[in-house]
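Q: Predict the bound structure with LMY7XDAE.
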Amino acid sequence: MSVQNLTTSAEAVQEENLDTEFVLTASCLDQVGIVAGVADFLSSRGFNIKEHQQFDNRGAGKVHIRTAFTTPEPISAKALEADFAAVAQRFDMSYQLRGSQPTRLLIMVSKGGHCLNDLLFRWRQGELNAEIALVVSNHEDLRQMAEGAGIPFVHVPITKDTKEQAEAKLLELIDEHDIDLVVLARYMQILSDELTRKLEGRAINIHHSFLPGFKGARPYHQAHDRGVKMIGATAHYVTADLDEGPIIEQEVIRVDHTYDPRALSQVGRTAESQALSRAVQWHCESRVLLDGTSTVVFR
Ligand SMILES: Nc1nc2c(c(=O)[nH]1)N[C@@H](CN(C=O)c1ccc(C(=O)N[C@@H](CCC(=O)O)C(=O)O)cc1)CN2
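A: Predicted complex:
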């Protein structure tokens, strides 16, 4: 094949979003033949399974699977998703088929920069399989951190009176930048019910407590008042019910009576950054499946 053709085929691959690496995630009622049905679909097309995990939620009578596979030639994820529809129908599966293209992130922050800093570091290391398209904040404090990393920073101020316009602007930015996932990296404003519905399954928040303990504002003050000996952080999908969304990852750190709320928040930053970055990475690798009000994480 001439160089011109190779270049053209590379352009075609780019343009049609063709790929050779895919992840299938699927959920359905437990029944005989699911794994065989998926394996037959893949092997009959010459596709090679690289990783397969499944979880049988006996209580709910549901099975969740995650299968990573490669194809001998570049093909379109959309075409493959349509091709798989017959198998999905046979088992009444909800499913998603993703190629290896990076997940496009919009990161929302307020004044605390530790989670953004950790995400930027892991992104630069290539650990996230994500593109950070932009950072949005209701304050100017973290502009330099974002722009210093070459990421556009958009200041969207918000008050109780301007919340509707601010959220409309956010939705504009999500559409304009073709965003796949919104990450609330210590963004300290409550999203409206309507916005959380629009972002269902596509927005992850880090709450600075070991949920379900200490929901809402000032969790470290709540923890200090309770005299806790462990503090924690929880990364969860965002829902209208504040800090009640399906939990993806948690981290804990031992503390004691000598820690005032300020000390708790300082030592808690590590737990927050670790939990959020892991949750974002696993979401970007299609390792997190919703299971009612919980999640299945194929780590
Ligand atoms: N709809 C949702 N919005 C947000 C969630 C969520 O789970 N659902 N998580 C929060 C983050 N958060 C804790 O992690 C949090 C942030 C802010 C507050 C709060 O009460 N803030 C203000 C009020 C702000 C407002 O009215 O918008 C306050 O301190 O009084 C509580 C929890 C992000 N958003």
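A: DSSP finds nine helices and 13 strands in the chain.
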